[in-house]
Amino acid sequence: MKSAIAELEAKGRAAREASKRLAYLATDIKNRALNNISRDLLARKDEILAANREDYKEAEASGMNAAMLDRLMLSESRLEAIAGDVLNVAALPDPVGEVFDMRTQPNGLLIGKKRVPLGVIGAIYESRPNVTIDISSLCLKSGNAVLLRGGKEAIRSNSALAGVVQDASLNAGMPDGAVQCVENTDRALVDHMLTMRNVIDLIIPRGGAGLIRSVVERAAMPVLTGGIGVCHTYVDKSADVEKAVAIIYNAKVQRPTVCNALDTLLVHADIAGGCLPLIAAELAKAGVELHCDRPALAILKNQSGLKLVPATDEDWGKEFLSLVAAIKVVDSLDAALAHIEHYGSGHSEAILTEDYTSATRFLNEVDAACVYVNASTRFTDGAQFGLGAEVGISTQKFHARGPLGLKELTTYKWIIYGSGQVRM
Predict the structure, then answer these.
(1) pLDDT digits (tens, 9 = 90+) for 19-47
(2) Are 176 and 13 in contact (CB under 8 A)?
(3) Distance (Å, rounded) from C-alpha 138 to C-alpha 179?
(4) Using CA atoms, how far apart are residues 261 and 321, in angstroms rounded to an integer?
(5) What is the H or E stretch that residue 234 is in?
(6) Distances (CA, A) of 25 to 28, 181, 186, 204, 405
(7) By Cβ atoms counted within 10 A, which residue in 88, 101, 105, 367 is the most buried?
(8) Does 330 share its domain with 188?
(9) Is 389 helix (H, G, I), strand (E, B) or coil?
(10) Residue 65 sits in which domain range?
(11) DSSP bridge pairs for 349
């Protein structure tokens, strides 16, 4: 273990040294590296997919649940999408060096802010090998070095992907050590990584509640947390029913194993009798199991082809990550807002309504990273928001919230231009 810790610390020091050069590296070198990464992901797809198949086979044999297996799995189409996201990051403006909020003081001093990288980002994540590419791409473009520690269930995939990033970056002129991958899967290394505040400026955990809680409690450096998504969609009494059916189906079914999928459907009592049967019939096409409160169950109980389960207290505030949704009939917008306040995780919440006042109240009063009017919560994603990709989705308020892109991986320093001023 001493040798593994020594190796981890050496990688940390290499990342710290690389970060010093990355902080002022030319944009064209960064973009060249990203273009190389995108190209090589496809050129080396056989190597990557073979490694992923080994990870998937082992994880499946170990009894990993379907949601986690879906997150672990890479395919040629998913790899093509990941490569496309890297190109999208390359096409975005470089945030580093941006000068803003400049103003002239009465004494003649010109004062403003200049955007700079954070330094070294530590990423600890589970199951999803695409995170290796997303985080690496965003860190490189934003001038940060990165120390990657994925889960053991994706070790072969992550090693193959990190190898592509490292080779492509070096070939573009990036400093050696800019992207480091911790390939030893001993959990003790995570504990040690969380003590390395002299090297790592920010830790970003991505995974289940247990991982995030453990990182928050143990880390000696700032932690940016999120990803746990208990997402609600509220159907207001003025909702367009046809629009609502399509949005709800997409929010639940399009990819049910991810954090921005719908978990709880709230329906206004005035519209429930007419719209719930239509919504349930559409969800039944995908085999969605509906955990209904008593009013919802009473409306749907005689409808054929549905998977109905009486809701329990445990269904409210639960992230299902599967083809399961909870349904509750509420008497008012106030009741919907109160339910979301009590059970929401601060991730993504939506209202379906044609009433401007209801929409405005929902936007103003719901405390979440992303709040929608008449759209699916599945859009909470860095690529969908025009960020190219994301290093995660923050559900906290400091220093960033929602999908974390390039600017969220920077800070600023004050810059002051004088002409000989002295303080009196």
Answers:
(1) 999 999 999 999 999 999 999 999 999 99
(2) no
(3) 11
(4) 7
(5) strand 231-235
(6) 9, 22, 34, 23, 19
(7) 88
(8) no
(9) coil
(10) 2-224+404-417
(11) 232, 371
